Amino acid sequence: MNILIIHCHPNPNSFNAALTERAVETLRAVGSNVVVSDLYAQDFDPVEHERHYRHRIDHDNFAPLNEQRNAYKTGTLPADVAREIDRLIWADLVILQFPLWWHAQPAMLKGWFDRVFVSGGLYTSSMRYDRGYFRGKRAICSVTSGAPEQAFGPCGRGGDIHALMWPIQYSLHYMGFDVVAPMLSSGVQGHGYSYQPADCLSAYLEGLLSKWSRRLIGVMDEQPLRFPVWSDWDSLGRAVSAIASQSVSAPKTRT
Amino acid sequence: MNILIIHCHPNPNSFNAALTERAVETLRAVGSNVVVSDLYAQDFDPVEHERHYRHRIDHDNFAPLNEQRNAYKTGTLPADVAREIDRLIWADLVILQFPLWWHAQPAMLKGWFDRVFVSGGLYTSSMRYDRGYFRGKRAICSVTSGAPEQAFGPCGRGGDIHALMWPIQYSLHYMGFDVVAPMLSSGVQGHGYSYQPADCLSAYLEGLLSKWSRRLIGVMDEQPLRFPVWSDWDSLGRAVSAIASQSVSAPKTRT
Question: Is A162 in contact with B106 (Cβ distance < 8 A)?
Fold first, then answer.
């Protein structure tokens, strides 16, 4: 099996780095091929910008999606984007490893979504969701937080983990991935485990690493999360009534 | 009244730019002071990175929150971050204007959250939510999408607008802002209105601009969205039962 880890943390000594290292060891030990895209180490540019398009279809107005479509069609995608796409095509499983910053992925990883999931190439208006480019592949997010796990329940202080993960996971679903439940390693203070007093913390962190390792062994057998699919929508994209009343609903907001 | 617009779009001819321009005109016409932070024009760096900290508290390990705290305390914040903070302190109302890219804000704006909301300065473990630094100030997100409005209902194809906005709006709530319901300008194809056939589209877009303008006139009188607050949580950050069963809940995900 081929596994791609998209790793996003600015510190190579962080607990995120330890989680990625443990994943690499675990997966290689069972015979998988593993490639890591270490976004900070690659100095990945997260900003979708006209500077990335040297063969513009429109030099006067920068419309990102039009330039993405044109670059894909003419084989002039930015080299860093083309490399990430090649790795995604190669992978059977994609792991996204990142800390929760402001209830989402760090900007660098957000920009990986903005730039790598190329319009007209990796998705079109009809090639999305259960008809997505990466259908048959699987994705999992492994995230860290400083707050304790208890704070991530419904209306919890840290925000419900499902609400936090929704935009990211729905984006992976959009691309056709089967997304399994996220791995949350909570209570990782200071965004870098090496800054902590060693005693009981090290046992706690080792427990998190072991849990991640065990989870990975069975990850291909897990039941994916269920998101709405084409058969759930009418032509305008509205949910048919049956599904709208169940599941995958949105956070309600009181006014 | 002082109003800050955080504007994030790479094209100065985009419909996002038209929305910002209309907001500036409307608000100045009623006597408000308006400042625009145009993130692309400022070439804002969204990447939280050790390069931003010239007076490191720890040169060996880059722990972003520790460096943020130290930089705030020692008055050595990066100049671009200090400028954004000054503008936020000045403002009574903050408008975030951006296109929805991958069910969230563009990477550049995500990095504005990562870098500008400085740990130890603009928030601490006790200075958050209804005790947040910016309490008494108000925020609104004005977002554009290519998909039609119908697709943003519960389980809709585009994703429920409340699920899309949750991480962003909860982050603003975390900082103490009163957040009012987002303004969604949907059906803006091509991420730039100038690429569209002129006829009926221009009337449609003019309608969206007028709607935004009317909304802004009364925005300080709107009832803010209600998110959980300190009195809703126990010491571990778990919601007390009454609130957990209502409101502001998370997207449910079937397994």
Answer: no
